[in-house]
Specification:
Strand order of the largest sheet: 14-15-16-13-12-17-18
Number of strands: 19
Low-confidence stretches: none
Number of helices: 19
Largest sheet: 7 strands, mixed
Distance between the termini: 36 Å
Mean pLDDT: 96
Structural class: alpha/beta
Shape: globular
Radius of gyration: 25 Å
């Protein structure tokens, strides 16, 4: 175990308290020896043997959004064999204690970090992210989120001392004296259900939160994005074995095409924790049916922007254009609805009507993506054909203010790359409401005309309450409006950003400082990462003895 891991843990624990900027994982490509392409190619068309018990078949079928099959075959597990083996690994891991578990988790993350370019290629070719984004979000940023979970887990488990001497005076009689021991006890096997678009960024928090609190972890990846999490499972099993623990503390559950094993596994009595990112329908089903488990979900939401006024009109447009374009809007934090008063907004460039704001935003997006090579690097590829279907449906909701166009990827001509679609709609139109009040995942946004800023705030409140939101963005020079936006987000429990005009974007969050989601609206029942994300994963058992 590297001595630096304890220093890293201490700094991480201090940083979640200070909320300052910090990361031990470099995010620039120059920090790594190569781009990972050779390691990735060596994985393609192979059998990914993890040495797990209960393997009864080999399954696969991933196809890169950039136009070729990966050809990797993964172990398919018999849960009646694998789950008991995982449960048998728990007692020794529980006995290791919070610090030892945290340091082993940090060693797993350090080994993952050393293979960041390989992970980046795996993320790129299962999600459609462009390589720079896959390197950062799928690599160091995901690793930061995992480390953040370990830091919270360590802090919460050590909040109560391991031992305490207890003495109660009894007057003239001898005092009562006990020695008390307090043991963090894991709930049981945890199930991580991965998503297609951000398998590591969304998967690592739950994986490491459960593992650091003593729970074995079964990782069930999305069938179109298995490789990144399979690599993580491989590194975890290798690290655990090297540290003297049973590698079956972490295992992979890959599935046959259309098998739907998440539903079956989620109801197994052995599964006591579930982390899920994906559709609202299945998230709701998990919350309602997996009664034996503590369920953490991140589901769909309708992220909203309120435009009232700005003192940096060009900066506002540029910032919004980037937010709408990044990874083709295939982020759970991407803005969808931009609420604009019909009378327009006040700006440093003079008053701007609704139509002018919409046209200028469309021009900002077009200008940002005018060069195909640059556009491909920012947009990445569409993760699947269902995104195109949603775009076609959105076009019928109103007036197309910015048509989406196909972009030819300079390195991957078979990739499906599309620029964002902006549709102008009116909040008073009941037909349009059905479109903009539902999540439209992908490069689609609605410029929604509202009666006034007050009406925009009211619609914001309703949207978050009914549909949920992971992000809210407001632009205003008015202290009154800023207070109203703040009050709305406090009342409805949504994370708010105000007046972003520079290099910080509403759809990006920083580990150790920003909370992803709040757990307080329908978009998610948990936040990444806070104490509430950790403490339900263990209980404290007390053992008392006479002193």
């Amino acid at each position: 175990m590297a001595p630096s891991h304890r220093a890293t843990l201490d700094t991480a624990v201090e940083t979640i308290r200070s909320r300052a900027h910090w990361s031990p994982h470099p995010e620039h490509p120059r920090a790594y020896q190569d781009d990972g392409s050779a390691a990735f190619r060596a994985l393609c068309d192979t059998t990914f043997d993890l040495g797990q018990p209960g393997t009864d078949d080999w399954v696969g079928g991933e196809v890169s959004p950039y136009g070729f099959p990966l050809g990797v075959r993964y172990p398919h597990a018999d849960p009646n064999v694998l789950l008991p083996a995982m449960r048998a690994a728990l007692p020794a891991w529980r006995s290791a204690g919070p610090e030892r578990r945290a340091l082993v988790c940090l060693d797993i993350l350090a080994r993952i970090n050393a293979r960041t370019p390989e992970f980046a290629q795996a993320v790129m070719h299962t999600t459609g992210q462009a390589y720079p984004m896959a390197l950062q979000a799928g690599g160091p940023h995901a690793q930061d989120r995992g480390l953040e979970a370990v830091a919270y887990a360590f802090a919460e488990q050590t909040r109560t001392p391991e031992r305490a001497a207890w003495t109660k005076p009894q007057g003239k009689r001898d005092p009562l004296a006990l020695v008390k021991e307090f043991v963090p006890v894991p709930r049981g096997i945890a199930l991580v259900i991965g998503c297609n678009t951000f398998p590591t960024w969304n998967g690592f928090p739950g994986l490491f939160a459960s593992l650091a609190t003593g729970n074995p972890v079964l990782v069930k990846p999305h069938p179109r994005a298995v490789l990144p999490l399979a690599l993580a499972v491989h590194v975890a099993r290798e690290t655990l074995a090297d540290a003297g623990f049973d590698p079956n503390l972490v295992a992979l559950a890959a599935e046959r095409d259309g098998e739907g094993i998440a539903r079956t596994l989620a109801l197994r009595d052995e599964i006591r924790i579930i982390d899920y990112t994906g559709s609202t329908a299945f998230g709701d089903w998990l919350e309602e049916n997996a009664r034996q488990a503590q369920v953490f979900t991140e589901k769909a939401g309708v992220n909203t922007v309120v435009l009232d006024s700005t003192d940096d009109y060009r900066g506002m447009l540029a910032n919004l254009a980037f937010s709408l374009s990044l990874y083709s809007g295939q982020m759970c934090t991407t803005p969808q609805n931009v609420l604009i008063p019909r009378a327009g907004i006040a700006t440093d460039a003079g008053p701007k009507s609704y139509d002018e704001v919409v046209a200028d935003l469309a021009a900002a997006v077009s200008g940002l993506l005018a060069d195909d090579a640059r556009a491909a690097g920012l947009l990445g590829a569409l993760v699947g054909p269902q995104v195109l279907d949603r775009m076609t449906g959105a076009e019928r909701a109103g007036r197309v203010a910015l048509a989406s166009r196909a972009v030819r990827h300079p390195e991957h001509p078979d990739a499906t790359v599309r620029t964002p679609l902006i549709v102008a709609v009116d909040a008073a139109d009941p037909d349009a409401e059905g479109a903009f009040m539902a999540e439209c995942f992908g490069p689609v946004s609605f410029a929604v005309a509202v009666d006034s800023t007050d009406a925009a705030v009211a619609l914001l409140r309703r949207t978050v309450r009914e549909r949920g939101a992971l992000t809210v963005l407001g632009h205003t020079t008015s202290e009154r409006v800023a207070r109203e936006l703040t009050d709305a987000c406090l009342d409805e429990c949504a994370q708010l950003s105000l007046n972003l005009t520079g290099g910080v974007y509403v759809n990006q969050t920083a580990a150790f400082s920003d909370f992803h989601g709040s757990g307080g609206n329908p978009a998610a029942n948990a936040a990444l990462v806070d104490g509430a994300f950790i403490t339900p994963r263990f209980r404290t058992v007390e053992i008392r003895r006479p002193a």
